[in-house]
């Protein structure tokens, strides 16, 4: 089969490899579409300590089951499915509380085992969600990043609250769409790329550059900024966010751009600002994402495109260089 292999910083190639074997509790999926995640761009650049070369990345995907392990039940060959790539142990304290996203023993498809930038991928059947035949494979592949956005929005947003989002990449745009579905008030999204800001405006948000928010703050947020979702996670966004959020406000940290940042802790304490980390999603978040996709509530027209897997290396180069006019690129084997 064809697979795109990560060999180290800025080195990915499409090669012929053996199709994966699968365990009795696993299924083999023929991949129909896989989205390129921002975290994989960081991995491509060599900024991810958990992605070890050689590796087949790819954890946002849709496909069809082509083979079943002996212990699999409730699924059939030819079923159209999406996959929760986070494999939880289901026995630790976090899992028993329903917080499988912070399982102490978690493994992730595309990081700790081969992922879906390939023609076939093997996955545990417990991680599979069936999707309707009529749903487009690339749209269905958004279930995973949409679940990330839903989880983040639910952690900090109250109905009718205004919201500031850092980053108009895929997660930022999906946070915008998820927040709209959850009854947010005004939503402002900050990004440096004009093309991405156009996507924000077309989706019903207010898109401006980060350097403009200081001068437009009173006009845009006359009652203050109660909630910020940082989908970038670099020093500049964290520092500016701390200065912009209301007293008693909440900042949801999603982006993993920089590991370390200096934060004004005394300011945080005196203003009772809540900082909340948001990591992936729960089973319920993933199911909610699929429901929104099935209902046609998530619009990907204009800000995404689908390419062939063989074009994957070029797509990675374009995305890290900021040369793509699309926020999301899907690869089809």
From TrEMBL:
<comment type="similarity">
    <text>Belongs to the zinc-containing alcohol dehydrogenase family.</text>
</comment>
<dbReference type="InterPro" id="IPR013149">
    <property type="entry name" value="ADH-like_C"/>
</dbReference>
<dbReference type="InterPro" id="IPR011032">
    <property type="entry name" value="GroES-like_sf"/>
</dbReference>
<dbReference type="InterPro" id="IPR020843">
    <property type="entry name" value="ER"/>
</dbReference>
<dbReference type="Pfam" id="PF08240">
    <property type="entry name" value="ADH_N"/>
</dbReference>
<dbReference type="GO" id="GO:0008270">
    <property type="term" value="F:zinc ion binding"/>
</dbReference>
<dbReference type="InterPro" id="IPR050129">
    <property type="entry name" value="Zn_alcohol_dh"/>
</dbReference>
<keyword id="KW-0479">Metal-binding</keyword>
<dbReference type="Pfam" id="PF00107">
    <property type="entry name" value="ADH_zinc_N"/>
</dbReference>
<keyword id="KW-0862">Zinc</keyword>
<feature type="domain" description="Enoyl reductase (ER)">
    <location>
        <begin position="8"/>
        <end position="331"/>
    </location>
</feature>
<dbReference type="InterPro" id="IPR036291">
    <property type="entry name" value="NAD(P)-bd_dom_sf"/>
</dbReference>
<dbReference type="GO" id="GO:0016491">
    <property type="term" value="F:oxidoreductase activity"/>
</dbReference>
<dbReference type="InterPro" id="IPR002328">
    <property type="entry name" value="ADH_Zn_CS"/>
</dbReference>
<keyword id="KW-0560">Oxidoreductase</keyword>
<dbReference type="InterPro" id="IPR013154">
    <property type="entry name" value="ADH-like_N"/>
</dbReference>
<protein>
    <submittedName>
        <fullName>Galactitol-1-phosphate 5-dehydrogenase</fullName>
    </submittedName>
</protein>
